[in-house]
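Inputs:
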Amino acid sequence: MIVLNGNLSEIEVIIGEEPSLSQAGGVKVDRLDAIRSHLYANGFSTIQALADAIGASLATVRRDLQVLESEGVIDRVHGGARIAEGSSVELAFQERAKRHLSAKRAIATAAYDLLAPRTAIFLDAGTTVLQLARLIRLNPMPLRIFTNGLTVAQEFLNIPNLEVVLLGGQLRSENASLVGPQAEAMLESIWFDQLFLGASAISPDGAIYSVDSAEASLNKCMLSRSAHRFVLADSSKFGTMATYKVAPLSASKVITDAGLSTHWRGELAGLGVDVTIADLGGRE
Amino acid sequence: MIVLNGNLSEIEVIIGEEPSLSQAGGVKVDRLDAIRSHLYANGFSTIQALADAIGASLATVRRDLQVLESEGVIDRVHGGARIAEGSSVELAFQERAKRHLSAKRAIATAAYDLLAPRTAIFLDAGTTVLQLARLIRLNPMPLRIFTNGLTVAQEFLNIPNLEVVLLGGQLRSENASLVGPQAEAMLESIWFDQLFLGASAISPDGAIYSVDSAEASLNKCMLSRSAHRFVLADSSKFGTMATYKVAPLSASKVITDAGLSTHWRGELAGLGVDVTIADLGGRE
DNA sequence: ATGATTTTGATCTATTCTGATCTAATCGCG
DNA sequence: CGCGATTAGATCAGAATAGATCAAAATCAT
């Protein structure tokens, strides 16, 4: 029986039955490991140095480096290669952050106008809320900020007059958020003036949904710990569904963009939900 | 004896005695790093001085400065260039991470060899421990990892078979760590097999010291929650002082590099501390 | 064993990088 | 304000590096 654990090269090794695999010279997997090892030990290396160290030609080393680069393990630069720095980690997340970017920025700007100095706010780990975080970094004001988002917290490094508290908990790679019972327990001892919550989806009957169970559970806790609740969701989210229900919109105010259909405007008015439509041109 | 007082740039200047850092191997990325370092150390430098220090022509230095200016890390003025105001603290961490890098990587490699699959470990927020984190990312094994370091957690995004738990608490910008009573409270409910702790300084009488009060307090909690304790400190840390005492070394094992003086080897042996000397060439 | 596929290494071409020289802009000083 | 001196920017040839192509070698499936 073969156990797959997500590592493709290991799978190949397990299935392959060559007894001569211990040979270090000619096998591609060994070469890739050797390159990674060499680059880690030296930080940076020219292609020539790698070729000498490994005993392969320049062309082969280049091809190997292409593979490693596509895996995100290394960074290739003119003149050689180096171990990838931590920054280029979340590809899917960054892609998601770019979708409907102008709408998200408009929404973030509208949300920023709601902030008051020296208050306590909570920022969710969503991509729309991240834009709000970016805006606060560029236009700082004294705030006490709570968040469960790694990227959100990162925005606030070295910004003066900000007290930033990150929730502890299990790291969820999909959106670099912290979730789980530890995060929820920590929330229980915190109270804040404003909550800015993103949403994976807003169901046709006007409820917030999330793609993740733990995230949804944590979102519920957030909602119960804030004096004012704002849901930041671009208009494309309305009328879509996700797996886990968080809460009805009725207890929150909504900030969205001008793309919201007249049907939904009426719907939200019928639910008694306060809606702010962010104007895309409304930048200061 | 060197007293560390929390001013990072002073630490760099005082301890910095390596001539090897300013040597660029003729490759662009090395030069950019060298310029960053030189400018960080001196605050301002003329183009001629940079060209002399790095060993490149004036034209090349100018072009490099253009790149760095577009990245926003420096400001160019007539006659030379200076570090951009905003990013000096951020650079301090990177500079610190690069100092004694080969020693730190050797230490990290020795620490990695101590890991066993499916155990629970805690990784401190120091720069040496960050190298261990990077090693785990490049060479993953199933682990339950706890940390209070934002950059450490970032390393583990999208790595399969890792359960990563980040301590909650107040964000400390200097080294992107989470500290404070909330972090300590969360530690109280966690127990792990191995702790890997960095150290700002190891005092002449063999005690761990830290530059930050909250960090020191948290470190004490960490030490009390682990079955095995490993202090990762390159040899330059021994015989230096910082402001806040964490704990004596006696209850921990030490991993350091071959630069440790014979005096200190004897000293540690006298204290009954188990010492591992990481060999810089000791790769698989 | 044999043919097909993949991998490797050498050669050639294209791109990028470097350093020198020349021209334009800026600074210091009377 | 103008002048000399210094510094910045532009251009270009030479060098180094990356990418593309192709034949030989190794590997794999039948």
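Chain B touches chain A through 47 residues (CB under 8 Å). Flag for discussion at group meeting.
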